[in-house]
């Protein structure tokens, strides 16, 4: 089974109706093992009117719906013949799946997937600061703050060791 995300084209304004219709069809036609998730990518939009903040949801891609599915003739047929669906995005009759990083970006933008930061350094290791006010300074990692995507580095300032908090991208491991 190769489950991928595909983009389906819908009539603009019908994205939520297509999502609902498709989810009902998946259930009634017992396709839960082939069609997994249906998403209408949304993001928060903050509007300020008369000094009041109003947060509303805005469609990121009007006229499009994402479907996570195992592409088979049966699953294609179910999606393609859902009312409001005008077709799959892809060349000709062959739908093209989204790339993994494209899906990750969309899910992150929707707040459905947390951003995972990684850094290849350990406590006690020397690093070079590559950006910011401490650029070109050499320091030693004191602490790695994973949840904040930051490191606490001890740098020498005015002849004394001073701890500074830097983002992962601001330091580089010394070889």
Automatic annotation (TrEMBL):
Keywords: Transcription, Transcription antitermination, Transcription regulation, Transcription termination. InterPro entries: KOW, NGN, NGN-like_dom, NGN_dom_sf, NusG-like, Rib_uL2_dom2, Transcrpt_antiterm_NusG, Transcrpt_antiterm_NusG_bac_CS. GO terms for cellular component: cytosol. CDD domains: KOW_NusG, NGN_Bact_1. Residues 120-147 form the KOW domain. The keyword Calcium does not apply. Residues 2-110 form the NusG-like N-terminal domain. GO terms for biological process: DNA-templated transcription elongation; DNA-templated transcription termination; regulation of DNA-templated transcription elongation; transcription antitermination. Participates in transcription elongation, termination and antitermination. PANTHER family: RHO-INTERACTING TRANSCRIPTION TERMINATION FACTOR NUSG, TRANSCRIPTION TERMINATION_ANTITERMINATION PROTEIN NUSG. Belongs to the NusG family. This is Transcription termination/antitermination protein NusG.
């Amino acid at each position: 089974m190769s489950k991928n995300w595909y983009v389906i084209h819908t009539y603009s304004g019908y994205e939520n109706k297509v999502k609902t219709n498709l989810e009902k069809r998946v259930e009634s036609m017992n396709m839960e093992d082939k069609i997994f998730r249906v998403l209408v990518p949304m993001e928060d939009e903050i509007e300020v009117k008369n000094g009041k903040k109003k947060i509303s949801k805005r469609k990121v891609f009007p006229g499009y719906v994402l479907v996570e599915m195992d592409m088979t003739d049966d699953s294609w047929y179910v999606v393609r013949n859902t009312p409001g669906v005008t077709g799959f995005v892809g060349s000709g009759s062959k739908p093209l799946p989204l790339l993994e990083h494209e899906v990750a970006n969309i899910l992150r933008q929707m707040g459905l997937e947390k951003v995972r930061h990684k850094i290849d350094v350990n406590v006690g290791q020397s690093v070079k600061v590559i950006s910011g006010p401490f650029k070109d300074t050499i320091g030693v990692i004191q602490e790695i703050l994973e949840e904040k995507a930051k490191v606490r580095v001890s740098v020498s300032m005015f002849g004394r060791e001073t701890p500074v908090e830097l983002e992962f991208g601001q330091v580089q491991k010394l070889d």
